[in-house]
Amino acid sequence: MAEKAIGIFDSGLGGLTCVRRIEKLLPGQKIVFFGDTGRLPYGGRSKDTIIRYTTQDLNFLKTFDLKLIVAACGTVSTMALDEIKKASGIPLLGVVEPSVKQAVSATKTKRIGVIGTAATISSGAYERHINALMSDAEVFSKACPLFVPLVENGHYRSDDAVVMAIVEEYLSELKANNIDTLILGCTHYPLLRQAIEKFFGPDVTLIDSGAACANEVENVLTKMGISPQEGSEGGCRFFVSDRTGDFASLASIFLGRAVDDSDVGLVDIYSY
Ligand code: DGL
Q1: Residues 217, 68: contact at Cβ < 8 Å?
Q2: Residue 40 CA, closest ligand 1 atom number
């Protein structure tokens, strides 16, 4: 029987940080990735719009034969996942629970920072999940709306003065609050890891929400007995809703490997 794929989607290309980790953990796993690059960012939009967009993203992915769908997007995971879960018909995972589990086991001082899009932070979802697992944890949250456009436009390096100025502007408050663990609650943010590490120094543990979610994918597939069989051939098919022209150069940064322009397909997402 042909191996079923996993569907992974994001508002843009940040979800590729999750794909990157799955390719490492489960090299035999087929993946279909959709990035809604034509409507990025989701993080400044209303809940209704995010749910409508997410429903179309799922409808597109459901045209493939999938065994699991991953919302590799902090904004979708915090604003739309509960609403769309029932209608999905396919098991659906988000990034919140896996990152919270890692943060709670990493913290020593129980002072945890969370950064994400405006929508993610206003949802309060990370705080709720952290306090459900660790009721005496103190959570300090900060929306960082400029991080996604920075990263999507290729600005992420720690020697980039613009990047470091914005990192300082957003994260000084969290530094003053003496957090020892920081959840990168948006799947674009792992690209800024070096810049954020440079700002905080070595005493703050960074939790990569895309990678944490990939670990959870591996656990769930094992539990459900649907891990890829030995010797099966993996590979990722990529689809976006706009900007196929610069897909390869940006995707290769997120994935840490070469990607070819011909690897990506264009989707008219409004028709789903
Ligand atoms: N990767 C998305 C997230 O994790 C990007 C945010 C956005 O679309 O605003 O939230």
Answers
A1: yes
A2: 8
Contact 210 CB / ligand 1 (< 6 Å)? no
Global pTM reads 0.94
CB atoms inside a 10 Å sphere around CB 257: 10
Q: Let me know: does 61 contact 55? Beta carbons within 8 Å.
A: no
User: Which residues neighbour 120 within 8 Å (Cβ) at sequence distance 6 or greater?
Assistant: 43, 74, 75, 77, 78, 79, 126, 143, 185, 186
Task: Report the sign of the C-alpha dihedral through residues 144, 148, 153, 156, in that order.
Answer: positive
Distances (CA, A) of 230 to 28, 69, 119, 234: 7, 21, 40, 11
Ligand 1 centre and the CA of 228: distance in Å? 28
Q: Is 217 exposed, middle or buried (0-12, 13-18, 19+ CB in 10 A)?
A: buried
> pLDDT (tens digit, 9 = 90+) per residue, 13-47?
999 999 999 999 999 999 999 999 999 999 989 99
In this prediction, residue 200 has a pLDDT band, given cuts at 50, 70 and 90, of: very high
Q: Match 């769930």 to its residue by tokens.
A: 220
